Amino acid sequence: MLVRDWMQAGPLTIVGDTLVSEAKRLLIENNLHALPVVDGARLRGLVTRASVLRMGHFATRTQNPDEMAFFVTRLKVKDIMVRRPATVQADDTMELCLQRGRELGVAQFPVLEGQALVGVISATEIFQLAAHCVASSPPGSHPDPTASQPAPPAPATRSPS
């Protein structure tokens, strides 16, 4: 199974000059955890909901009106985005994608075809893949998590002499 078969094609994207306040709105309204930052079709970075919320929290904690105004009116995505985020290629296998996600602790990847952004793959698509695999496997081919497990063998004991 290839990433291209499971990815979300044509993802919502933003450009680096987008205000962070606008990125926050897009992330929340679209229930996204990250947005690819592009220049044309070329991936330039990734802005995450966590980084946007962290910056907003920082700005409001200072209680300085100038810093809050800067956050709302001048701070741009390119100032806080993750540059060179981990990516996968559209023709990579899902197995490779899962391994990379586990190794890197990443739950979402921009999907590239060469250098062009063509999609994203996230935990949502990975759960769909898992459901597909479980549904298509024959009954009894995977462990039943509700079944009681046999007791481990008792430790060996010495008989008194």
From TrEMBL:
Residues 7-67, 81-136 form the CBS domain. Coiled coil: none annotated. SMART domains: CBS. Residues 135-161 are annotated as: Disordered. It comes from the Bacteria. Keywords: CBS domain. Gene3D superfamilies: CBS-domain. The keyword Transmembrane helix does not apply. PANTHER family: CBS DOMAIN-CONTAINING PROTEIN, CBS DOMAIN-CONTAINING PROTEIN CBSX3, MITOCHONDRIAL. This is CBS domain-containing protein. It comes from Ramlibacter lithotrophicus.
